[in-house]
Amino acid sequence: MSILEGIVIFVVLAVSGGMLFGKKDRRLDTVYLGATVLAVLLHGLIDQFRIQMVLAYVIAIVLAIVLIRRIIKPDSPKRIKSVIVKILLSVVVLAFSGVSGYLSVLLPVFKMPQPTGSYAIGTVSRHLIDDAREETKSSDPSDKRELMVNVWYPVDKEQAKGKPLEHYPSELGEAISLVFGFPKQLFSHVTAIPTHVVTGAEVSAAEEKYPVVLFSPGVRSTRFQSLTAIEELVSRGFIVVGMDHPFTSAKVAFPDGRAIFYVPDPEFETSAEVYENNIKGVAIRVADSRFVLDKLTEWNSKDPEGLLQGKLDLDRVGIFGHSYGGATTAETLAQDKRFKAGVSLEGGFWGDVAHTGLQQPFMYMMTGETAKSFDPNSTNKDKVFYEEFQPDLKSVMTKSTSDTYYMTVDHFMHQSFTEIALLSPSLFAKEIDPVHNIDITRSYVTAFFEQYLKGEPQKLLEGPAPEFLEVKFDKQYTQKRTPAQ
Asked: What contacts 24+ positions apart, CB below 8 Å, involve 93-97?
């Protein structure tokens, strides 16, 4: 709950109590009215009106109407004398205010953790069309595969000063609504949450060029879902490209006003059919990743906007993703050796990678809850667990020829690799501090790419760390190997 939200609720309670149990006085009513209107207006102008506070707004509106009538016509309406009626009205006011307060705490307007690197963060969004591929999920057979990407890049902090900060887009609320089944209106306030990203800034000239990392989100999610990790990478000298994949991302909004929403897969009777369908779905996303890297190669040679030209170190390209994006990461590494390293945040293994392993360094992070599903005696399997998961994981980790890391994270659920802990600590970070939750993901992802794209050894990857006791290294699958020549 913000300070101004707390003030609105306090004023509503104080004014209601004064009107119900205090003396009727025209001058005092004027003070009450001024306080109510001022509190609500300041909240709306400085914060943002949001659905969590709607019951408090209702009380404020009723109070304002009654007060205006009392000021204009001091003798009408007559004061309520019944103690029972006063008590009932007090209960209603307390209940409405309590619900608003509870929802405001449950779904706060949070503040993003500060990135730790030396760079500020700039961004540009771009609309891409792959003329070589048909859009197989479109009703129009002539449609080509279209993508939306954001490029986040390092900016000199001095240049970023004074520029307005970007806010989370509404797509984040759409994604949370789809994943958890909540009304999307409950998350409309995300657009009031500032990031650390600016627009209209030049790429920093502190380095000649920067290593590149692609990001692929989960199904029903968005390229903005893990912005804390993206910001951390960029602040430490990476260019990050977030991709949205139409029909599997929650919502892909294009510059011309069109939007493509998530389309669920059909129901399948057997797990084998689901597995084969996932292979096809991941293959489309892998083609997206390879196409994006092709476009980056073009822009590095000649960027129509001039922003990225010569700034991309395409000899140092990585990729990471969450869930289906993690599966996209693993299969992209298997199919395209231009990608030099990758991190999967609890993704599956659908495609060639399950049979061949990887030649590039690879890190896999899994939640402690999902890891419990590997126990053959466990009857309560996590919903992201599937029959082939364990043998596929073993195959990838044992057949890979470069360094592999496999860690489990206690007190994490599947969505903990996103910003969900900040969006509702009470619901999604019950056993862990929400900022610490965020620090785990962004610290390990950044350490991995600093070691394998920048060649900077990272102590965090050597084994258990006292600052992150929740992270457990699996000795069998965490192996340092000599990369294949």
From this structure: 93/12, 93/13, 93/16, 93/59, 94/13, 96/55, 96/56, 96/58, 96/59, 97/9, 97/12, 97/13, 97/55, 97/56, 97/59
Alpha-helical runs (H) found in 181-270? 227-235
pLDDT score for 384: 80
367 neighbors 346 (Cβ within 8 angstroms)? yes
For 156, what's the count of Cα atoms within 13 Å in the CB-facing half-sphere?
7
Dihedral of CA atoms 447, 453, 457, 460 in degrees, nearest 10, equals 20
Cα–chain center distance at 16: 39
Torsion of CA 111, 117, 119, 124, to 10 degrees: -60
Q: How far apart are CA 146 and CA 135, in angstroms?
A: 8
Give 8's strand partners.
Answer: none
> Which of 375, 404, 387, 376 minimizes the C-alpha distance to 349?
387
Structure tokens at 19: 């009107």
Among residues 314, 315, 320, which one has the least CA distance to residue 332? 320
Could you report the average pLDDT of every consecutive run of 10 residues in the chain (485 residues)?
90 92 87 94 89 94 92 72 85 94 90 96 97 91 94 96 92 87 85 93 97 96 95 98 96 94 90 93 97 98 95 98 97 98 96 96 93 77 79 96 96 92 90 95 98 96 96 95 56
Q: First vs last Cα of the chain: how many Å apart?
A: 56
How far apart CA 25 and CA 443 sit, in angstroms, is 60
Torsion over CA of 22, 25, 29 and 32, rounded to 10 degrees?
Answer: -40
Residue 408: helix, strand or coil by DSSP?
Answer: strand
Rounded to an integer, what distance in angstroms lies between the CA atom of residue 404 and that of residue 342? 10
Query: Nearest to residue 218, comparing CAs of 169, 190, 170, 176?
Result: 176
CA 14 – CA 11 distance, rounded (Å): 5
- Say how far apart CA 473 and CA 471 lie, in whole Å: 7
- The C-alpha atoms of residue 325 and residue 226 are separated, in whole angstroms, by 11
Rama region for 289: left / alpha / beta (φ>0; ψ in -120 to 50; rest): alpha
- Stated as kind and residue range, the H or E segment containing 18 is helix 3-21
Report how far apart, in Å, the C-alpha atoms of 147 and of each of 129, 133, 246, 252, 300 are.
6, 12, 7, 8, 19
